[in-house]
Amino acid sequence: MSSSTPSAPEPSTPAESAIPEPEATAPASPTDAELTAALGSWLPEQRWFSAKGHTVTGVDVLTRETLATTADLTLVHLLVEVHLEGADSQVFQVPVGVRAEVDEDLEPAVLLRTDGAGGQGGARSGCVVYDGLRDPSVIGLLSDLLATGGTGDVRFLAVPGADLPTGLSGRVLGAEQSNTSVVVGDRFLLKLFRRVAVGVNPDVELHQALGRAESAHVATLRGWIEADVRHDETTLGMMQDFVAGASEGWTAALEAVDAVLAAGDLGAGDFTGEARSLGGAVASVHRDLARVLGTSIAPAAETTAAISARVESALPVVEGLDAALPRVRALIEAAGETAVDTQRIHGDLHLGQVLRTPDLWVLIDFEGEPSRSVDERRTPDSPLRDVAGMVRSVDYAAMSRVVDLPDDAERVAAERLAREWVDRTVTAFLDGYAEEAGRDPRENLALLRAYELDKAVYEAVYEARNRPGWLSIPMHAIERLADG
Ligand SMILES: Nc1ncnc2c1ncn2[C@@H]1O[C@H](COP(=O)(O)OP(=O)(O)O)[C@@H](O)[C@H]1O
Ligand SMILES: O=P(O)(O)O[C@H]1O[C@H](CO)[C@@H](O[C@H]2O[C@H](CO)[C@@H](O)[C@H](O)[C@H]2O)[C@H](O)[C@H]1O
After folding, report:
1. Contact assessment for residue 129 and residue 111, using Cβ atoms and an 8 Å cutoff
2. Does the beta carbon of 459 sit less than 6 angstroms from any atom of ligand 2?
3. Is the dihedral of CA 33, 36, 41, 45 positive or negative?
4. Ligand 2 geometric centre to CA of 40 (Å)
């Protein structure tokens, strides 16, 4: 990919471009001033806007590049810097479509309508600017650029032999998450990172490494999009095979929990077989990452200091966290006595990051926690962090189904059943991991618990900012962990 990842395959040479040349009839472009004014109110409403909870004090267009122009559509790539009160600014990627007018189905994606007044260089007609990733034609243009190799400031690079066809169109995936993923031609999954973290994104780097290891538990990487941001090569997106016919681990786990709660019987939603094979898949991916990218040892004190720092920084954001503080500190201290085996890991593993195909589990989204810097995310860490992430997620799946129940005897019974389901499922997951890894994560229980706590604190901050109705899920987990 770059000088910073020397073993990565070189991108393939661009073929003849399928992107049409600009045409005279293309719609007018908005000015930067129009864009920044509109983005100031539009960005905070987006699910992927990671600066929620901060007041936006200003928006600057950092870079603006027209990527493609057809008769009725201009695709403009924007990197925008959002200035925040009392916090560091954040950079977001916003590819926009510009048309003279849009169909009804694109109305919800509209960011700005100009009336044509205020344009630079004389009169111009009005235009509609909208979130490009909602438009199948825009997705098609991005995919064509990957297939043919875009050579502007935003670079489109295909993995050698990727053999990407042109002329595909796309659709946005239902659920918006930290980033925006679209399906292209029902064959590929194109993900555009929304908050741009300067540097090479671990999602591309680790997919490349696991490709070299021929891991069966990841989708094949086909290409990526990058640009220099503040002089550093920075990943903006990636294209990989779309895993067809797969169900998300989160959905599968919820179905099992629902069956248990509806029947009042653990046997009705047994997830232990799935959890066991999931544990095996995670262990297999860890082994491959260690083999290709190496291992190291870190003093446990470094790990516990980082967890303590996370807890401290969460205190002002998460109301009530301070009540558990002395017990939380004791839990963290207990983990600080041994050295930690480290390697590259997934970094943000949960049930929403695993896909169940008829044959096996596939792990996705190796980006790490989006709120960390790229350097932090690329630092080797204990595989127990991933194990803890999945343990927390099993708890989430069960508790998300009881969190909204009225506070009565029925809820108490449901909670008890849900907790038993969690215990069984977690045990099976850890058994499956131990069997494949040849090493049981429970051998270092104090460290495993410290990572669970770390994740629960991260989740508490995440929920406080994004889903306050679910805040009690990680808060209860913190209480349980703190109580030993
Ligand atoms: N290779 C793939 N094949 C099929 N679906 C995928 C693939 N990768 C991701 N997805 C789907 O896209 C969603 C978002 O992908 P993810 O990488 O987790 O994005 P984010 O960084 O926004 O969390 C996932 O929850 C999953 O349902
Ligand atoms: O969108 P990402 O995949 O990058 O992850 C972020 O959002 C997740 C929520 O979608 C959040 O995960 C938390 O909720 C999940 C259920 O929605 C649950 O499975 C996870 O265990 C829980 O941590 C994740 O932490 C955040 O980084």
Report:
1. yes
2. yes
3. positive
4. 26
Distance CA 326, CA 37 (A): 46
Q: Give the residues across from 189 on adjacent strands.
A: 183, 240
439: phi then psi, degrees, rounded to nearest 5? -150, 125
- Identify whether the C-beta of residue 298 lies closer than 8 Å to the C-beta of residue 340: yes
Ligand 2 pocket member 369 (CB < 6 A): yes
Q: Residue 463, CB half-sphere, CA atoms under 13 Å: how many? A: 19
- Distance from chain centroid for Cα 266: 32
Selection from 185, 208, 390 nearest residue 282 by Cα:
390
Probe residue for ligand 1, chosen from 92, 177, 224 as the CB with the greatest number of ligand atoms within 8 Å: 177
The ligand minimizing its distance to the Cα of 348 is 2
- Tokens read off for 257: 């929990």
* Tokens found for residue 114: 């100009």
Size (the chain), residues: 484
Q: Which of 384, 295, 392 is nearest to 335 (CA)?
A: 384
pLDDT at 409: 86
Report yes or no: 183 and 119 within 8 Å, Cβ to Cβ. Answer: no
Which of 196, 355, 356 maximizes ligand 1 atoms within 8 Å of its Cβ, making it the mutation to test the pocket?
355
pLDDT on residue 29:
81
Mean pLDDT for each consecutive 10-residue tract of the chain (484 residues)? 38 43 59 93 91 90 95 96 94 96 94 74 74 95 93 92 91 78 95 94 96 97 95 96 95 98 97 98 98 96 94 95 94 89 97 96 94 90 97 98 90 95 98 98 96 96 92 97 91
| The model's pTM | 0.87
Q: Which residues have CB under 8 Å from 431's CB, separation 6+?
A: 276, 279
Across the strands, what pairs with 65? 77
pLDDT of residue 393: 98
Q: 170: Cβ–Cβ under 8 A, 6 or more apart, which residues? A: 136, 139, 140, 142, 143, 182, 183, 184, 185, 190
| Long-range contacts of residues 262-268, Cβ cutoff 8 Å, at least 24 apart | 264/413, 264/417, 266/417, 266/420, 266/421, 266/424
Fold (topology level) of 247-482: Aminoglycoside 3'-phosphotransferase; Chain: A, domain 2 (3.90.1200)
* Percent of residues in the chain assigned helix, strand, coil, to nearest 5: 45, 20, 35
C-alpha angle 95-100-103 in degrees, rounded to nearest 5: 80
Tally the C-alpha atoms within 13 A of residue 385's C-alpha that lie toward its C-beta: 23
For residue 182, the cross-strand partners are: 172, 190
